[in-house]
């Protein structure tokens, strides 16, 4: 039992399994009016279902790996510098979203996030990060605003 509690993937799958159950149960409690086909409960139900599916796969996969794995396991050092950098970046992203808008704040956010989360042993390809950081927010903005009729934070420029 100790090897399951010390495995990060198993614990993450276990925790997020119950978080997704709670999230999904509350998504079904969202009141809808029945006026349009896609209402306020649609995306939370999708996110909850995806989180439940992914956490179940992670839980099962890590359980099967730990069952056949020997007792030898290596402890990897936690990279606290990257963790706090990502948390700070998310804080700045959320703080500036209403002022600069979704597209303008998402571009530097995704670029910096790509730089931070790329492991040191992988060569950083800045042009791929730049293209990804520009294209993804624009596509997401148009999908959410035009096809799903959801308003995205527009900020001072849009």
From TrEMBL:
Pfam families in the cross-refs:
TctB (PF07331)
Transmembrane stretches in the record are 12-30, 42-64, 84-111, 126-144
Keyword annotations for this protein? Membrane, Transmembrane, Transmembrane helix
Q: Does the keyword Membrane apply?
A: yes
Q: Which InterPro entries match?
A: DUF1468 (IPR009936)
Query: What region holds the DUF1468 domain?
Result: 12-153
Q: Does the keyword Cell membrane apply?
A: no
Q: What is this protein called?
A: Tripartite tricarboxylate transporter TctB family protein
Per the UniProt record, the source organism is Pasteurella testudinis DSM 23072
| UniProt lineage | Bacteria, Pseudomonadati, Pseudomonadota, Gammaproteobacteria, Pasteurellales
